[in-house]
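EI: anyone free to look at a 404-residue chain?
SC: sure, send it
EI:
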Amino acid sequence: MTEETLAGPAPTVRNRPAPEPTGPDFDPVLSELMREGPVTRIRLPRGEGWAWLVTRYEDVRTVADDPRFGREAVMDHQVTPPAPHFIPSRGTVGFLDPPDHTRLRRSVAAAFTAKGVARVRDKARATLDELVDELLRAGPPADLITAVLSPFPVAVICELMGVPVADRHDMHTWTQQILSSTHGKEVSEQAKDEMYGYFADLVGVRLHSAAEDVASLLGGAVGRGEVTLEEAVGLAVLLQLGGEAVTESSGQLLRLLMTRPDLVERLRAEPEIRPRAIEELLRYIPHRCAVGLCRIALEDVELSGVRIRAGDPVHVSYPAANRDPDVFPDPETIDLDRSPDAHLAFGFGPHHCPGGMPARLESELLVDVLLDRVPGMRLAAAPDEVPFRRGASIRGPETLPVTW
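SC: here you go
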């Protein structure tokens, strides 16, 4: 955007550098922007121009759910990409507005309901028990990421997606190459092409399947003419990529618990509060490394006394909204009794993350199994020596050394 899009005085444009987290602390630049006001202007590290950043809980919900802010319009505007190799694709679910967005999401909705996720619960628990069995057989020390937190989400999302066991290693490799900028543009693009080709074949052979996995649901929708094969493949890739983000979020969650014996003691003494505790940890933990996809204001809108003009790009910060003191009193404190806890860790509105239910399932199983089966687990390194991933869009430890 240029200054000519504004009438009257506007907030100063602030540089928001690309964060390279070296630990679990909340982004200090974001904290500073939150103190400046609920609606600020930022210049991201890639590209030119500026965008609005919205951080107040109610304003974030408004932008995420209000049809006056659209995603399709991003394709017709010059916006700063959220990642170095990111190229928006017209017609993919992330750049659709209702009703097309609703139509496409509806095709897989059944797989991500409580009933749909419960379908894989027993197999997920069995997989996790097998991984912990192997962890205990091998003995300490161990890297919890390699031993449990990486293979477990891969198995769960592949089960939901309908990806056969024999193909899961390739799927994991492609995901890592796509999500991290450290491999370079050519490697990321090749991995994306291979994943797209894989799901095109998988969905294509399930046009008449009655199974309940995502690939079969998409195949059925394509067969009935409700979505195109291209739309189905784009959605499948997005869901697969998002499913592995649990590795990072659970890595942060377990690292935090191992630095807070008071929390662990209470979770062991009161197992019935674990689901509520996980909600509070999801609120508290800063998962994203940067702002995500923007929206475009489709008409002039006022937010918290700030005039946003039609055509302006607008980013929301869910981590900032989760620290809004007007909604979450004493937001810097982990309060396992916080209720209600209507956090926005999985977004809000039409584009909310469909993986919220499976992510909760995986987090609950991990806390149950590791706290109950490995009661002496603790960090095998100082907390500040646990390395965090570089060049990733989702924030989490690269390794998690533990002993017991």
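EI: The first strand starts at residue 13 and ends at 15.
SC: 👍
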